[in-house]
Amino acid sequence: MTDDESEAIDAFERLGLTSYEAKVFIALHRLGSGTARDVASVTDVPRSQVYSVAESLEDRGLLEVQQSSPIRYRPVSIDEAEETLRNRFEQERERAFEFVDSVTRESTTEETQEDIWTVRSRDRVDDRVVDLLSQADEEILFGTRLTELVTPDIERTLEEQATNGVSITVISRNEAVRDRLGAIDGVATAVPPAHRDDDQRSGRIVIADEDSLLLSVVDDDDSETAIWSAGSLFASVLIQLIEASTATPESETR
């Protein structure tokens, strides 16, 4: 079996076929049509198994059976098979997600869902920061003391949001961070209060629309861990506390 054929069989399995079904379907397309003996001769599917596999493929609408002696099998066209599998996939997808949606509605009526989430690893924190920034409609506060925590995606998202009219403030004691992000039109920069000078573990802060919040810390091994919350009482209270602790920063709009 070639690598390409093995990958095709794996793909068919992900579409819902068994390994034997995929092998028989491919074999019949290679043969054009054939008996169970013919199929078994070009695959590792035992002849005794070909009959039940072919019956299953017929039920799936992927092959036709000629009632001859011996019985012959012919696969449907590639286009027809593709359409059949696509329709089946859509039906199963709808069935699965309709059920998940129903149990989600049931759970939210009985208890409050988790409001604070934890994200670990630099890449995942990067993605969450971009996600929160991109969802803001009115106001963003972004802060970090480390230039390496300002990724190109974050910078690009801030620029896009500034263009969209979102009010953006970048807070950092690092002049390089303020200069880099302050160069974006519509972005204001600010220096945090002096009492935060000894803060050597902080990573990033994001506040979006007074509704969403992310706070991260950088560990000794340079890994990053963040907590975030959106649309929750926790987020609202934490945002108020943070805004109170960073009140009256020196700011400048560029």
Describe this structure in words.
With 254 residues, the chain is of the alpha+beta class. The protein is built from nine helices and eleven strands. The chain has an eight-stranded mixed β-sheet, sandwiched between helices. It has a three-stranded antiparallel β-sheet with strand order 1-3-2. Helix 1 crosses helix 2, helix 2 crosses helix 3 and helix 6 packs parallel to helix 7.
Q: What descriptors fit this protein?
A:
49% helix, single chain, alpha+beta, disordered C terminus, three-stranded antiparallel sheet, elongated, 254 residues
In short:
The chain contains 9 helices and 11 strands. It has 254 residues and is of the alpha+beta class. The model is unreliable at 108-113 and 248-254 (pLDDT under 50).
Q: Biggest β-sheet, characterized?
A: 8 strands, mixed
* Proportion of beta-strand residues: 15-25%
- Helix-strand makeup class: alpha+beta
Order of helices and strands: HHEHHEEHEHEHEHEEEEHE
Helix content: 40-55%
Cα radius of gyration in angstroms? 29 Å
The mean pLDDT is 85
Count of strand segments: 11
C-alpha geometry? elongated
Low-confidence stretches: 108-113, 248-254
Oligomer category: single chain
Q: How many individual helices? A: 9
| Lateral arrangement of strands in the main beta sheet | 4-10-9-8-5-6-7-11
Distance between the termini: 64 Å
What's the arrangement of secondary structure elements?
Elements: H1 3-14, H2 19-31, E1 34-35, H3 36-42, H4 47-59, E2 63-66, E3 72-75, H5 78-110, E4 117-120, H6 122-135, E5 139-144, H7 152-163, E6 167-171, H8 175-182, E7 187-191, E8 202-208, E9 212-218, E10 224-230, H9 233-245, E11 250-253
Parallel strand pairs: 5-6, 6-7
Antiparallel strand pairs: 1-3, 2-3, 4-10, 5-8, 7-11, 8-9, 9-10
Helix pairs in contact: 1-2, 2-3, 2-4, 3-4, 6-7
